[in-house]
Every structure is written in structure tokens, then in C-alpha cells.
User: Fold this.
Amino acid sequence: MKLTQSLPTVYTAQSKHNFFCRDVICEYVLLHQAVPLNPFRMFDYFLGDRVDRNVVRRANNNCVRIADEIWVFGEISDGVFHEIRYALDLRKPVRYFTLSTHVDGITEVPPHETSLEDEVERSVGLSEERLRRVIVSAAR
Assistant:
């Protein structure tokens, strides 16, 4: 193993409802020979509200911009959907994965097999059909 070998960086998008899976997500990415940029490891959960959430969101978007790829884990929340759209605007590859509390329970899934959190349609203002079109197009 060459310790100075360059590895791709991966922004790990996940719902705040699954923040407790941040370590297993980072483990999964590292085991797949990439460097995880996990917002819940970098900024905890909005830094316990000590920093304005929009400042943290801007920081997350900068990490999306810096990353080579975006990997989405688990259900898609409104925030994750915005990160997918931003990645699409930047022409970044987007991949989708199930979520588990153990690394061996995580598998890659096609975009049409992803699920959306209940509030996404209302929050984003798009129908499920339009949301899914974006999700599928981002994976190409």
C-alpha cells in the first residue's frame, strides 16, 4: 500500500434522520478506496446550532463542489435532494446506496430504487415524478 497514493474524494449525502450512521458510511467509503467528506463528521449535526444553518449548508455545498463524486446513502431528504441537484449542475457522478448500521449491510442500488422522505415533495415544491426524473438523471 502506497500511503501517498491519490484517492478520489466522495461527498456522502445522507438525511439528518440517519446522522447516527455517519461512521459506518465513512468506513464504507474508505473500504472502497475513497476519501469520505461526511458533513456529519465535519460539522456534527449543525454544530449543535452554534452556527447558522445556512453557513453550514454553504460549507456542505463547497464540499459537493470539491468532491469527485457524490454518494447518497438511504432515504433522500429535501437537503440531500438539493445536494443531488447541485452535483448534477456541476456534472458530478452521483451513486445511490442503501443504509445500514453495519458496512456489510450497505449495497449500491439503481436510482429508481431510492426512496424519498415524506416531506420532500412539499418542501422542494416538485411532484414525486419530477423529483425522480432529477434523481435518475443525476446518476447517468
